[in-house]
Give the backbone structure.
Amino acid sequence: MLKLIREKLNSGMGRDVVWTFTIQILIMLCAFAVNKLLANRLSIDDFGQYNVIKRSVQVLSFLMLAGVGIALPRYIPLYRKGADQRPVMPLVEASFIYILGVTLVVCIVCWAFSSDMQRLILGETGNIRLMTIALAYAFALAMAQVVFAYYRGIGDFKWYNGTQLSIQLSIVLPLVFLPVLTATSVFTSWLVITALLVAFYFVRELWRHRPLTVGTVPSVAAELKTIVKYSSGRLVADFFQFTLAAFPLVYISNVMGLQPTAYYSVGITFVTMITPLFSFMGIILLPYVAECIAKQELKAANRLIRRLALLYVGASLVAIVTLLLFTEFLTRLLFAESYVVASDVTRIMILSILPQALFMLYRNPIDAVSVVPYNLILLGICLAVMVAAFSLCTTLPQFAWAYLGVSVLQGLLFLATWHVIKRKEQA
């Protein structure tokens, strides 16, 4: 067993796993620092609004990304190593065209229904400037995701992880050095930093691959059809996925106000700080499984996923037990004393780490194996159940139990779907 583990770690994929896991730990520590600084420097109401905007920006960003973050890591390995090898540049150009088109539609909708969209994005109305900043920051994050997806597709996980870490480290700086923190100053500084770093990465890649072979109009048009066909379902799936994360805070802020939203956000933050440690393997699995499909080696990918499932369950249980035992201590450490009153709500939500870990494991292999947008269907079901459940809740503990119930449903649906698809592919 130890020999097998050593062989896996010494393989190319094993080194990618170790590197990615290490960087994801550092990114998680940056997230801890961000939440600690904001929880101490913002009032409870402002911290509640920050969390509403943050989740809303994530939804907008992945709407603007339009599923390209999944498409590039799937198609780049197929184009570079599959039986029908072809240039990657027309695919990248088509991706930008698609993203710009979707972003334009998103911005037009937000500005056309400004009052309603401000209430959803900001948790308040009468601040068109902050909404515009949020939209611009969402687009900058979408462009960052394109960079990450490109590096995943070409298998350069050092730069994939390095670019993520550099952005995460950079956004800590204004939280330390700005004399006064408000939601506007936080997101404005993050917009500037992210845009500058993304521009640098784009220029770097253009410089490395000079002279560039620009795709012809027919070739770009053909790739645009491919991107739209594959990504359109994923676009809605991404919207459902990040709406699942944003909806609880947006709904509670409109029903109960910003202070309860801040308390509720502590539980969600604990979950979202831990689950990226489980999603890191999916980062590698999508291009790996896509490559296995090109080589007709799906059984090898399935063996790896089966072993990882056992590891994920064990690691999830360890994380849950640790967080449950030290909930109040960690709340004081990572947030502030004033948020300890929400510990009972936080403990309920911590239990959702296990089912969400299973979701993180299976979502990328499902996307790699099937062109059918199963993720769209499953996440749509989960979102509908969440909306229905939240409409019946009136207290924070009830909202927490509803969140946990939807997470359990989400994990079970993705687990079952992977086994069904796997049998079909192997039949």
